[in-house]
Design goal:
Order of helices and strands: HHHHHHHHHH
Mean pLDDT: 86
Structural class: mainly alpha
Largest sheet: none
Radius of gyration: 17 Å
Low-confidence stretches: none
Number of domains: 1
Length: 240
């Protein structure tokens, strides 16, 4: 019972932060989940919550719909992530996540020094951003933070940023959750109960995040995302 309550609280917090920033759900949940359950079960549990979070973002921020950006950024990103994952399998010994951590910290530092900087929102830059973010995500294994870094470089309105990030992640998460189940991962009875309770609770976290973002002025949104990108970078640099 205590474990179920703790997992539900974890889903609430992770969903709220993951919705508000466009990334971070797995970063928050995985280190704690592995304390309770075997790693494959943790991956599936977090994958399902992450998938639900993608749906909540799409539902709650649907006014940020931008088909051109979604296709130009998302489709190349999904394809490039497979290429990046294949490349990473050939170089396991290299400290890739620490390199990514350093990149994220440097990137956030640049944004803070150049607050008005943004990539032009053209189809070409969107495709290039999608390819690079997908390649980095597959190569480094930290998809949300990399995608958030590149999307924030477009200095998008917050609704467009959250919706686009969520819908791109939806297709990726559908694939990986299906693969976990197909590979034989299953939930023990008590963890299944915790998951069934955590799904509606994760919606509550996403809704609270939307309320928070409604009150957050657009001019501070990229700074807010940048702070969390820096925190992820520090974590990767120190604890990767």
């Amino acid at each position: 019972m205590v474990q179920t309550v703790l997992l539900c609280m974890l889903a609430l917090a992770a969903s709220g932060i993951g919705t508000a920033t466009g990334f971070g759900t797995s970063t928050i949940m995985m280190p704690i989940m592995v304390l309770f359950v075997p790693f494959p079960v943790a991956l599936l549990f977090v994958g399902v919550i992450h998938l639900c979070g993608d749906v909540w973002k799409a539902l709650l921020f649907k006014r940020g719909f931008d088909w051109r950006l979604l296709f130009a950024f998302g489709l190349p990103g999904i394809a490039a992530s497979f290429v990046g994952a294949s490349l990473s399998l050939q170089a396991q010994a290299f400290p890739f996540k620490r390199i990514l951590g350093g990149f994220l910290i440097a990137y956030v530092g640049y944004l803070f020094l150049n607050r008005e900087w943004a990539l032009p929102r053209t189809s070409i830059t969107a495709v290039c951003g999608g390819l690079l973010s997908g390649l980095f995500a597959g190569f480094f294994g930290v998809g949300g933070a990399v995608r958030g870094a590149f999307l924030s470089a477009f200095n998008l309105p917050k609704e467009v940023y959250i919706f686009t990030s969520g819908l791109i992640a939806l297709f990726i998460d559908l694939t990986r959750v299906t693969r976990y189940v197909w590979g034989g991962t299953r939930f023990p009875g008590d963890i299944l109960v915790a998951l069934l309770l955590s799904i509606p609770i994760s919606f509550a976290g996403a809704y609270l995040a939307k309320r928070f973002l409604t009150q957050l002025p657009q001019k501070y949104f990229r700074t807010f995302v940048g702070v969390f990108l820096a925190l992820v970078g520090i974590k990767l640099l120190i604890w990767a």
